[in-house]
Amino acid sequence: MDLRIEPAGALKGKYSVPGDKSISHRAVMLGAIAEGDTLIENFLPGEDCLSTIDCMRKLGIEIEGPDNAVVKVHGRGLDGLAEPEDILDAGNSGTTMRLLLGILAGQPFFSVITGDASLRRRPMARVTEPLGQMGAQIEGRQGSNLAPLAVRGGNLTPFFLNSAVASAQVKSAVLLAGLYAKGATTVTEPYRSRDHTERMLEYFGADVEVNGNHVWLSGRPCLKGQKVVVPGDISSAAFLIVAASVVPGSDIILPGVGVNPTRSGILDVLWEMGADIELLDRRDEGGEPVADIRARYTGKLSGVTVGGETIPRLIDEVPVLAVAAALAGGVTIIKDAAELKVKESDRIATVAAMLGMFGADVEQLPDGLLVRGGRQLKGAVCESHGDHRIAMAAAVTGLAAEGETVVRGAECIDVSFPGFETIIKSILK
Ligand code: S3P
Question: Where does 3-phosphoshikimate bind (predicted)?
Fold first, then answer.
Protein backbone atom coordinates (compact mmCIF):
# COMPACT_ATOMS: atom_id res chain seq x y z
CA MET A 1 0.00 0.00 0.00
CA ASP A 2 1.20 3.52 -0.81
CA LEU A 3 0.70 6.34 1.70
CA ARG A 4 0.63 9.76 0.00
CA ILE A 5 1.59 12.81 2.02
CA GLU A 6 1.40 16.49 1.15
CA PRO A 7 2.96 19.23 3.25
CA ALA A 8 0.62 19.48 6.21
CA GLY A 9 -1.53 22.07 7.84
CA ALA A 10 -1.00 22.47 11.56
CA LEU A 11 -1.76 19.54 13.89
CA LYS A 12 -4.40 20.77 16.32
CA GLY A 13 -6.40 19.26 19.17
CA LYS A 14 -6.49 15.82 20.76
CA TYR A 15 -5.17 12.66 19.16
CA SER A 16 -5.39 9.32 20.87
CA VAL A 17 -2.46 6.97 20.41
CA PRO A 18 -3.05 3.21 20.68
CA GLY A 19 -2.01 1.11 23.67
CA ASP A 20 1.62 0.35 24.42
CA LYS A 21 2.98 -2.55 22.38
CA SER A 22 5.47 -3.83 24.97
CA ILE A 23 2.89 -3.75 27.76
CA SER A 24 0.16 -5.37 25.61
CA HIS A 25 2.44 -8.34 24.82
CA ARG A 26 3.38 -8.80 28.47
CA ALA A 27 -0.22 -8.56 29.70
CA VAL A 28 -1.25 -11.45 27.42
CA MET A 29 1.74 -13.59 28.32
CA LEU A 30 1.54 -13.05 32.08
CA GLY A 31 -2.25 -13.38 31.94
CA ALA A 32 -1.85 -16.79 30.28
CA ILE A 33 0.45 -18.18 32.99
CA ALA A 34 -1.39 -16.56 35.91
CA GLU A 35 -4.24 -18.21 37.82
CA GLY A 36 -7.66 -16.86 36.82
CA ASP A 37 -8.76 -14.18 34.38
CA THR A 38 -6.83 -11.13 33.23
CA LEU A 39 -8.79 -8.25 31.73
CA ILE A 40 -6.75 -6.02 29.45
CA GLU A 41 -8.11 -2.60 28.46
CA ASN A 42 -6.65 -0.34 25.74
CA PHE A 43 -4.83 -3.40 24.34
CA LEU A 44 -2.92 -2.62 21.12
CA PRO A 45 -4.70 -4.52 18.34
CA GLY A 46 -1.60 -4.18 16.11
CA GLU A 47 -0.28 -7.20 14.24
CA ASP A 48 2.63 -7.81 16.64
CA CYS A 49 0.36 -8.20 19.66
CA LEU A 50 -2.14 -10.27 17.65
CA SER A 51 0.75 -12.66 16.99
CA THR A 52 1.24 -13.04 20.74
CA ILE A 53 -2.48 -13.80 21.19
CA ASP A 54 -2.34 -16.33 18.35
CA CYS A 55 0.69 -18.12 19.87
CA MET A 56 -0.94 -18.24 23.31
CA ARG A 57 -4.11 -19.71 21.82
CA LYS A 58 -2.00 -22.42 20.16
CA LEU A 59 -0.57 -23.12 23.62
CA GLY A 60 -4.08 -23.91 24.85
CA ILE A 61 -5.09 -20.57 26.39
CA GLU A 62 -8.60 -19.29 25.83
CA ILE A 63 -8.50 -15.60 24.92
CA GLU A 64 -11.50 -13.37 24.12
CA GLY A 65 -11.09 -10.29 21.92
CA PRO A 66 -9.62 -7.94 21.05
CA ASP A 67 -12.98 -6.30 20.94
CA ASN A 68 -12.83 -2.52 21.14
CA ALA A 69 -9.27 -2.92 22.45
CA VAL A 70 -10.47 -5.15 25.31
CA VAL A 71 -8.96 -8.63 25.75
CA LYS A 72 -9.82 -11.27 28.32
CA VAL A 73 -7.23 -13.97 28.98
CA HIS A 74 -8.38 -17.09 30.83
CA GLY A 75 -5.13 -17.89 32.63
CA ARG A 76 -4.27 -21.51 33.49
CA GLY A 77 -1.41 -20.92 35.91
CA LEU A 78 2.34 -21.48 35.55
CA ASP A 79 1.90 -25.12 34.49
CA GLY A 80 -1.27 -24.76 32.43
CA LEU A 81 0.13 -24.42 28.89
CA ALA A 82 -0.37 -27.33 26.48
CA GLU A 83 1.98 -28.68 23.80
CA PRO A 84 1.06 -26.85 20.56
CA GLU A 85 -0.12 -29.00 17.66
CA ASP A 86 1.32 -26.61 15.12
CA ILE A 87 4.21 -24.21 14.63
CA LEU A 88 3.95 -20.96 16.62
CA ASP A 89 4.19 -17.90 14.36
CA ALA A 90 5.54 -14.67 15.87
CA GLY A 91 5.08 -12.79 12.57
CA ASN A 92 7.21 -9.63 12.58
CA SER A 93 7.44 -9.47 16.37
CA GLY A 94 10.81 -9.86 18.10
CA THR A 95 9.12 -9.36 21.46
CA THR A 96 6.73 -12.27 20.84
CA MET A 97 9.54 -14.59 19.82
CA ARG A 98 12.12 -13.69 22.48
CA LEU A 99 9.74 -13.46 25.44
CA LEU A 100 7.84 -16.57 24.42
CA LEU A 101 11.13 -18.48 24.12
CA GLY A 102 11.63 -17.70 27.82
CA ILE A 103 8.24 -19.22 28.66
CA LEU A 104 8.67 -22.19 26.28
CA ALA A 105 12.05 -22.95 27.88
CA GLY A 106 10.17 -23.75 31.08
CA GLN A 107 7.58 -26.09 29.51
CA PRO A 108 7.89 -29.89 29.65
CA PHE A 109 6.96 -30.20 25.96
CA PHE A 110 8.17 -29.68 22.41
CA SER A 111 7.41 -26.54 20.42
CA VAL A 112 8.62 -24.81 17.26
CA ILE A 113 8.51 -21.06 16.76
CA THR A 114 9.10 -19.08 13.58
CA GLY A 115 8.37 -15.63 12.16
CA ASP A 116 8.34 -13.59 8.95
CA ALA A 117 11.41 -13.08 6.72
CA SER A 118 12.62 -10.09 8.78
CA LEU A 119 12.30 -11.91 12.11
CA ARG A 120 13.98 -15.05 10.73
CA ARG A 121 17.06 -12.88 10.09
CA ARG A 122 17.23 -11.40 13.61
CA PRO A 123 19.65 -12.74 16.25
CA MET A 124 18.13 -15.13 18.78
CA ALA A 125 21.36 -16.52 20.30
CA ARG A 126 21.18 -13.68 22.84
CA VAL A 127 18.22 -15.57 24.35
CA THR A 128 18.76 -19.17 23.24
CA GLU A 129 22.25 -19.25 24.86
CA PRO A 130 21.20 -18.24 28.39
CA LEU A 131 18.02 -20.34 28.12
CA GLY A 132 20.20 -23.30 27.06
CA GLN A 133 22.41 -22.72 30.10
CA MET A 134 19.28 -22.82 32.26
CA GLY A 135 18.55 -26.30 30.88
CA ALA A 136 16.33 -25.86 27.80
CA GLN A 137 17.26 -27.60 24.55
CA ILE A 138 16.86 -25.15 21.69
CA GLU A 139 17.90 -25.90 18.11
CA GLY A 140 17.94 -23.65 15.09
CA ARG A 141 20.02 -22.50 12.13
CA GLN A 142 23.43 -20.87 12.69
CA GLY A 143 24.00 -22.47 16.11
CA SER A 144 20.47 -21.79 17.38
CA ASN A 145 20.73 -18.12 16.39
CA LEU A 146 18.06 -18.01 13.70
CA ALA A 147 14.40 -19.02 13.69
CA PRO A 148 12.66 -21.37 13.09
CA LEU A 149 13.66 -22.61 16.54
CA ALA A 150 12.70 -25.94 18.08
CA VAL A 151 12.40 -25.99 21.86
CA ARG A 152 12.34 -28.89 24.29
CA GLY A 153 11.91 -27.23 27.65
CA GLY A 154 11.55 -28.08 31.29
CA ASN A 155 13.71 -28.70 34.38
CA LEU A 156 15.31 -25.28 34.45
CA THR A 157 17.87 -24.19 37.01
CA PRO A 158 18.07 -20.59 38.25
CA PHE A 159 20.53 -18.37 36.43
CA PHE A 160 22.66 -15.26 36.82
CA LEU A 161 22.78 -13.42 33.50
CA ASN A 162 25.32 -10.67 32.96
CA SER A 163 23.98 -9.42 29.64
CA ALA A 164 26.32 -7.82 27.11
CA VAL A 165 23.43 -5.82 25.62
CA ALA A 166 20.89 -3.56 27.31
CA SER A 167 17.88 -5.43 25.94
CA ALA A 168 14.50 -5.75 27.60
CA GLN A 169 13.74 -8.75 25.42
CA VAL A 170 16.82 -10.63 26.66
CA LYS A 171 16.19 -9.61 30.27
CA SER A 172 12.51 -10.58 30.02
CA ALA A 173 13.17 -13.95 28.36
CA VAL A 174 15.49 -14.95 31.20
CA LEU A 175 13.13 -13.62 33.89
CA LEU A 176 10.16 -15.47 32.36
CA ALA A 177 12.22 -18.68 32.26
CA GLY A 178 13.26 -17.89 35.84
CA LEU A 179 9.60 -18.19 36.84
CA TYR A 180 9.96 -21.93 36.15
CA ALA A 181 13.25 -22.45 38.07
CA LYS A 182 13.28 -23.13 41.81
CA GLY A 183 15.40 -20.39 43.41
CA ALA A 184 16.48 -16.88 42.42
CA THR A 185 17.28 -15.79 38.87
CA THR A 186 19.08 -12.47 38.40
CA VAL A 187 19.81 -10.32 35.38
CA THR A 188 22.38 -7.53 35.17
CA GLU A 189 22.56 -5.28 32.12
CA PRO A 190 25.03 -2.59 31.06
CA TYR A 191 22.33 0.09 31.03
CA ARG A 192 18.78 -0.15 32.22
CA SER A 193 16.34 -1.24 29.51
CA ARG A 194 12.54 -0.90 29.68
CA ASP A 195 11.26 -2.41 32.91
CA HIS A 196 7.67 -3.36 32.05
CA THR A 197 8.28 -7.05 32.75
CA GLU A 198 9.58 -6.36 36.26
CA ARG A 199 6.69 -3.98 37.01
CA MET A 200 4.05 -6.35 35.67
CA LEU A 201 5.51 -9.44 37.37
CA GLU A 202 5.27 -7.59 40.65
CA TYR A 203 1.72 -6.44 39.83
CA PHE A 204 0.75 -10.09 39.18
CA GLY A 205 2.21 -11.13 42.56
CA ALA A 206 5.78 -12.29 41.86
CA ASP A 207 8.64 -11.52 44.22
CA VAL A 208 10.91 -9.18 42.20
CA GLU A 209 13.57 -6.74 43.35
CA VAL A 210 15.23 -4.09 41.24
CA ASN A 211 18.45 -2.38 42.21
CA GLY A 212 19.88 -0.10 39.51
CA ASN A 213 20.72 -2.33 36.52
CA HIS A 214 20.16 -5.56 38.50
CA VAL A 215 16.91 -7.50 38.69
CA TRP A 216 16.30 -10.39 41.09
CA LEU A 217 13.34 -12.75 40.77
CA SER A 218 12.23 -15.61 42.99
CA GLY A 219 11.11 -18.66 40.95
CA ARG A 220 7.83 -20.60 41.08
CA PRO A 221 5.60 -17.72 42.26
CA CYS A 222 1.83 -17.95 42.23
CA LEU A 223 0.80 -15.35 39.68
CA LYS A 224 -2.78 -14.07 39.95
CA GLY A 225 -4.79 -12.68 37.01
CA GLN A 226 -5.28 -8.89 37.12
CA LYS A 227 -6.95 -6.00 35.36
CA VAL A 228 -4.38 -4.20 33.20
CA VAL A 229 -5.13 -0.80 31.69
CA VAL A 230 -2.51 -0.33 28.99
CA PRO A 231 -1.20 3.25 28.69
CA GLY A 232 -0.86 4.91 25.28
CA ASP A 233 2.37 3.94 23.53
CA ILE A 234 5.05 6.64 23.81
CA SER A 235 6.77 5.05 20.80
CA SER A 236 3.67 5.83 18.70
CA ALA A 237 3.14 9.21 20.39
CA ALA A 238 6.70 10.17 19.39
CA PHE A 239 5.73 10.40 15.72
CA LEU A 240 2.97 12.90 16.49
CA ILE A 241 5.14 14.82 18.99
CA VAL A 242 7.86 15.28 16.38
CA ALA A 243 5.26 16.13 13.71
CA ALA A 244 3.79 18.83 15.99
CA SER A 245 7.29 20.13 16.77
CA VAL A 246 8.19 20.63 13.09
CA VAL A 247 4.89 21.66 11.43
CA PRO A 248 4.26 25.41 12.00
CA GLY A 249 1.23 26.36 14.10
CA SER A 250 0.79 22.90 15.67
CA ASP A 251 -0.53 22.43 19.19
CA ILE A 252 -1.67 18.94 20.22
CA ILE A 253 -2.65 16.96 23.28
CA LEU A 254 -2.07 13.21 23.50
CA PRO A 255 -4.06 11.90 26.48
CA GLY A 256 -2.95 8.99 28.66
CA VAL A 257 0.51 8.22 27.28
CA GLY A 258 2.96 6.03 29.23
CA VAL A 259 5.93 8.09 30.45
CA ASN A 260 7.89 5.34 32.21
CA PRO A 261 11.44 6.78 32.56
CA THR A 262 12.91 3.67 30.89
CA ARG A 263 10.91 4.65 27.78
CA SER A 264 10.82 8.45 27.81
CA GLY A 265 14.34 9.21 26.55
CA ILE A 266 12.79 10.77 23.43
CA LEU A 267 11.16 13.47 25.57
CA ASP A 268 14.45 14.26 27.32
CA VAL A 269 16.26 14.58 24.00
CA LEU A 270 13.52 16.64 22.33
CA TRP A 271 13.54 18.97 25.37
CA GLU A 272 17.29 19.33 24.98
CA MET A 273 16.74 20.17 21.29
CA GLY A 274 14.37 22.98 22.32
CA ALA A 275 10.98 21.32 21.72
CA ASP A 276 7.92 22.66 23.55
CA ILE A 277 6.51 19.58 25.30
CA GLU A 278 4.60 19.53 28.57
CA LEU A 279 3.51 16.59 30.72
CA LEU A 280 0.07 17.30 32.20
CA ASP A 281 -1.84 15.43 34.88
CA ARG A 282 0.95 12.98 35.71
CA ARG A 283 -0.45 9.88 37.40
CA ASP A 284 0.17 6.18 38.00
CA GLU A 285 -2.03 3.54 36.35
CA GLY A 286 -1.54 -0.18 37.01
CA GLY A 287 2.06 0.30 38.10
CA GLU A 288 3.05 2.48 35.13
CA PRO A 289 3.50 6.30 35.08
CA VAL A 290 1.13 8.04 32.65
CA ALA A 291 0.56 11.68 31.57
CA ASP A 292 -1.28 13.75 28.99
CA ILE A 293 1.35 15.11 26.62
CA ARG A 294 1.06 18.57 25.09
CA ALA A 295 3.38 19.34 22.16
CA ARG A 296 3.62 22.67 20.32
CA TYR A 297 5.59 23.95 17.34
CA THR A 298 8.59 26.05 18.31
CA GLY A 299 10.43 26.53 15.04
CA LYS A 300 13.84 26.41 16.66
CA LEU A 301 15.07 22.88 17.29
CA SER A 302 18.83 22.47 17.52
CA GLY A 303 21.14 19.47 17.14
CA VAL A 304 22.25 17.26 20.05
CA THR A 305 24.58 14.38 20.86
CA VAL A 306 22.81 11.27 22.17
CA GLY A 307 24.46 8.10 23.50
CA GLY A 308 25.11 5.87 26.51
CA GLU A 309 22.30 5.19 28.95
CA THR A 310 19.84 7.30 26.93
CA ILE A 311 19.94 4.92 23.95
CA PRO A 312 17.94 2.01 25.46
CA ARG A 313 15.41 4.60 26.70
CA LEU A 314 14.68 5.73 23.12
CA ILE A 315 15.90 2.88 20.94
CA ASP A 316 12.64 2.59 18.97
CA GLU A 317 12.43 6.37 18.55
CA VAL A 318 15.73 6.81 16.71
CA PRO A 319 14.06 6.89 13.27
CA VAL A 320 11.78 9.78 14.26
CA LEU A 321 14.53 11.48 16.27
CA ALA A 322 16.63 11.49 13.10
CA VAL A 323 13.73 13.24 11.33
CA ALA A 324 13.70 15.95 14.03
CA ALA A 325 17.49 16.21 13.68
CA ALA A 326 17.27 16.67 9.90
CA LEU A 327 14.84 19.57 10.44
CA ALA A 328 16.83 21.09 13.35
CA GLY A 329 19.71 23.56 13.12
CA GLY A 330 23.21 22.11 13.57
CA VAL A 331 24.62 18.63 13.91
CA THR A 332 23.06 15.67 15.73
CA ILE A 333 25.14 12.62 16.61
CA ILE A 334 23.45 9.39 17.70
CA LYS A 335 26.05 6.94 19.02
CA ASP A 336 26.26 3.68 21.05
CA ALA A 337 23.26 2.48 19.05
CA ALA A 338 24.64 -0.50 17.07
CA GLU A 339 21.52 -2.42 18.21
CA LEU A 340 19.65 -0.48 15.51
CA LYS A 341 21.21 -2.83 12.95
CA VAL A 342 19.20 -5.79 14.27
CA LYS A 343 15.74 -4.24 14.50
CA GLU A 344 12.86 -4.88 12.06
CA SER A 345 15.29 -3.53 9.45
CA ASP A 346 18.91 -2.33 9.74
CA ARG A 347 17.73 1.05 10.98
CA ILE A 348 21.12 2.75 10.62
CA ALA A 349 20.98 1.98 6.90
CA THR A 350 17.24 2.44 6.36
CA VAL A 351 16.98 5.74 8.27
CA ALA A 352 19.98 7.15 6.37
CA ALA A 353 18.55 5.98 3.04
CA MET A 354 15.06 7.31 3.80
CA LEU A 355 16.22 10.78 4.92
CA GLY A 356 18.69 10.88 2.04
CA MET A 357 15.75 10.55 -0.40
CA PHE A 358 14.36 13.83 1.02
CA GLY A 359 17.72 15.56 0.48
CA ALA A 360 18.83 15.46 4.13
CA ASP A 361 22.54 15.23 4.95
CA VAL A 362 22.87 11.99 6.94
CA GLU A 363 25.94 9.83 7.46
CA GLN A 364 25.92 6.26 8.76
CA LEU A 365 28.23 5.62 11.73
CA PRO A 366 29.24 2.10 12.86
CA ASP A 367 27.06 2.59 15.96
CA GLY A 368 24.61 5.30 14.93
CA LEU A 369 24.00 8.30 12.70
CA LEU A 370 25.36 11.76 12.08
CA VAL A 371 22.77 14.24 10.82
CA ARG A 372 23.66 17.73 9.58
CA GLY A 373 20.32 19.47 9.95
CA GLY A 374 18.72 22.52 8.47
CA ARG A 375 18.41 21.67 4.75
CA GLN A 376 15.07 22.34 3.05
CA LEU A 377 13.69 18.81 2.51
CA LYS A 378 11.95 17.86 -0.72
CA GLY A 379 9.11 15.33 -0.96
CA ALA A 380 10.29 11.87 -1.98
CA VAL A 381 9.23 8.34 -2.88
CA CYS A 382 10.50 6.09 -0.07
CA GLU A 383 10.35 2.41 0.77
CA SER A 384 9.29 1.20 4.21
CA HIS A 385 11.62 -1.83 3.95
CA GLY A 386 8.77 -3.63 5.72
CA ASP A 387 9.61 -1.64 8.87
CA HIS A 388 6.66 0.14 10.53
CA ARG A 389 8.81 2.80 12.18
CA ILE A 390 10.65 3.65 8.95
CA ALA A 391 7.28 4.06 7.19
CA MET A 392 5.96 6.40 9.91
CA ALA A 393 9.21 8.38 10.11
CA ALA A 394 9.02 8.90 6.33
CA ALA A 395 5.40 10.06 6.62
CA VAL A 396 6.33 12.62 9.31
CA THR A 397 9.22 13.87 7.15
CA GLY A 398 6.74 14.23 4.29
CA LEU A 399 4.57 16.52 6.42
CA ALA A 400 7.46 18.97 6.72
CA ALA A 401 8.95 18.56 3.23
CA GLU A 402 8.16 20.58 0.09
CA GLY A 403 5.94 18.73 -2.43
CA GLU A 404 4.42 15.27 -2.43
CA THR A 405 5.82 12.22 -0.60
CA VAL A 406 4.90 8.60 -1.25
CA VAL A 407 5.66 5.92 1.34
CA ARG A 408 5.70 2.51 -0.36
CA GLY A 409 4.81 -0.59 1.62
CA ALA A 410 3.03 1.45 4.30
CA GLU A 411 0.77 -1.47 5.31
CA CYS A 412 3.45 -2.49 7.83
CA ILE A 413 2.38 0.50 9.98
CA ASP A 414 -0.38 -1.79 11.32
CA VAL A 415 2.31 -3.70 13.22
CA SER A 416 2.27 -1.00 15.93
CA PHE A 417 0.01 1.93 15.02
CA PRO A 418 -3.32 1.00 13.44
CA GLY A 419 -5.06 4.33 12.76
CA PHE A 420 -1.87 6.25 11.93
CA GLU A 421 -2.94 6.73 8.33
CA THR A 422 -6.34 8.13 9.39
CA ILE A 423 -4.64 10.65 11.71
CA ILE A 424 -2.19 11.70 8.99
CA LYS A 425 -4.96 12.10 6.40
CA SER A 426 -6.95 14.25 8.84
CA ILE A 427 -4.11 16.78 9.04
CA LEU A 428 -3.17 17.02 5.35
CA LYS A 429 -3.84 20.46 3.82
C1 S3P B 1 11.03 -4.37 23.38
C2 S3P B 1 12.38 -4.18 23.61
C3 S3P B 1 13.27 -3.51 22.64
C4 S3P B 1 12.48 -2.73 21.60
C5 S3P B 1 11.33 -3.51 21.06
C6 S3P B 1 10.37 -3.89 22.16
C7 S3P B 1 10.24 -5.07 24.42
O8 S3P B 1 14.03 -4.49 21.96
O9 S3P B 1 13.33 -2.31 20.56
O10 S3P B 1 10.62 -2.77 20.08
O11 S3P B 1 9.00 -5.04 24.36
O12 S3P B 1 10.85 -5.67 25.31
P13 S3P B 1 15.44 -5.04 22.54
O14 S3P B 1 15.17 -5.77 23.79
O15 S3P B 1 15.96 -5.95 21.46
O16 S3P B 1 16.29 -3.83 22.74
Answer: 21-22, 26, 167, 169, 316, 343
- What pTM, to 2 d.p., does this model score? 0.98
Check whether residue 15 and residue 25 sit in a common domain: no
Query: Sign (positive/negative) of CA torsion 132, 136, 139, 145?
Result: negative
pLDDT of residue 299: 84
Catalytic residue among 292, 316, 336, 414: 316
173 plus 279 within the same structural domain: no
pLDDT at 429: 59
Answer whether 327's CB lies under 8 Å from 275's CB.
no
Listed in sequence order, the DSSP H helices in 9-154 are 21-33, 47-58, 94-105, 125-134, 141-144
Domain boundary, last residue among 198, 229, 260: 229
Query: Domain residues for 225?
Result: 21-229
Query: CA-CA distance, 193 to 203, in Å (whole number)?
Result: 19
Please work out whether the CB of residue 95 comes within 6 Å of at least one atom of ligand 1.
yes
Over the stretch 291-347, which tens digit does the pLDDT of each residue have? 999 999 998 899 999 999 999 999 999 999 999 999 999 999 999 999 999 999 999
Q: 111: annotated binding-site residue?
A: no
- Whether ligand 1 lies within 6 angstroms of the CB of 168 is answered as yes
| 250 and 215 part of one domain | no
Residue 316 CA: nearest ligand 1 atom is: 9
Last residue of one domain, picked from the residues 229, 245, 268: 229
Closest residue to atom 16 of ligand 1, CA basis: 167
Pocket test for ligand 1, best of 95, 99, 236 (most atoms within 8 A of CB): 95
Q: What angle do CA 90, 92, 96 make, to 5 degrees?
A: 40
Q: Of 259, 364, 262, 274, nearest to 309 (Cα)?
A: 262
Q: In CATH, what number is assigned to the domain containing residue 301?
A: 3.65.10.10
Residue 121 assigned as binding residue: no
- Are 14 and 82 found together in one domain? no
316 has catalytic annotation: yes
Point out the residues of the chain with pLDDT beneath 70. 429
- Residue 427: the pLDDT is 86
Q: Are residues 69 and 196 in the same domain?
A: yes
pLDDT at 381: 98
389 marked ligand binding residue: yes
Centre of ligand 1 to C-alpha 167, Å, is: 6
